[in-house]
From TrEMBL:
Keywords: ATP-binding, Nucleotide-binding, Transport. Coiled coil: none annotated. This is ABC transporter ATP-binding protein. Gene3D superfamilies: P-loop containing nucleotide triphosphate hydrolases (3.40.50.300). Pfam families: ABC_tran (PF00005). InterPro entries: AAA+_ATPase, ABC_transporter-like_ATP-bd, P-loop_NTPase. Residues 2-238 form the ABC transporter domain. One of its GO terms (molecular function) is ATP binding.
Length: 259
């Protein structure tokens, strides 16, 4: 579990995060959503330790990150997996070498142990025959699965995903969503996803944090979001006619169940 208390972050005179308090639960897919400029990217970078913040705290299973020694911070980072928006694969490395990279950085495993672990995670993301391919030979969906394999190769306790479906078609996006959720549950990881994809929210949003102007405007699940009367949330989520119709049907069916 990741616990955030009164998190505040400014750039110069501009306050971007204005006191966010929330928790991200273990074994669940936790989504951060919000419009551009809401603060969600800055929030994610604070969670990752890439940005310092002026007030508040972030605790990983009870350990406040800012109070850790440099060695302890390094050990904590070894427990974190990251799926970047553009996959961020190394063009000069094969897929297997890309996946092996965190093991070489953070472990003292032998080459055979590392190869075995790479085989395991590539099999898990259905890329058992892709070891010797270069990233340029892989489709966008394959590259994203490689990025997920690399993120989990070190058995992380925490998984962060920044817009994991960016640039993918709807069918491939659903495959990636389901894969992330399955891995979260299998490995009992605390997964945090920064997303603007409402299909992802409705598909795997076990906990959703909605930010607006640097504040936590709302939180709940994909089921709660259909029922909320929060105008900022409904304007964001139901900006398309499709989701307005989905909400209408959901409310109608829910009403029938209660009568």
């Amino acid at each position: 579990m990741i616990e955030v208390k009164d998190l505040q972050k400014s750039f110069g005179d501009t306050k971007v995060l204005k006191g966010i308090t929330t928790t991200f639960e273990t074994g669940k897919t936790n989504l951060i959503i919000g419009q551009s400029g809401s603060g969600k990217t800055v929030f994610l970078k604070c969670l990752l330790g890439l940005f310092n913040y002026e007030e508040g705290s972030i605790a990983y299973d009870g350990s406040i990150f800012a109070k850790l020694s440099e060695d302890e911070k390094r050990n904590m980072r070894a427990k974190i997996g990251m799926v970047f928006q553009g996959s961020a694969l190394f063009d000069s490395m094969t897929i297997a070498e890309n996946v092996m990279f965190p093991l070489r950085m953070f472990t003292k495993q032998s080459k055979s142990e590392m190869r075995d672990r790479v085989d395991t995670v590539l099999n898990r993301v259905n890329l058992s025959d892709a070891h010797n391919k270069m990233p340029s030979e892989a489709s966008g969906g394959m590259q994203k699965r490689v990025a997920i394999a690399r993120a989990i190769v070190n058995n992380p306790k925490y998984l962060f995903c920044d817009e994991p479906n960016s640039g993918l078609d709807p069918k491939t996006s659903m495959v990636i969503d389901n894969l992330i959720q399955e891995i979260t549950q299998e490995y009992n990881i605390t997964t945090v996803i920064n997303s603007h994809d409402m299909n992802s929210v409705m598909e795997i949003g076990e906990k959703i944090i909605f930010l607006k102007n640097g504040l936590k405007e709302w939180e709940g699940s994909k089921h709660n979001i259909f029922k909320t009367e929060n105008e900022a949330v409904t304007d964001f989520v139901y900006s398309s006619n499709l989701f307005k119709k989905v909400r209408s049907v959901y409310i109608e069916n829910d009403s029938k169940k209660t009568h």
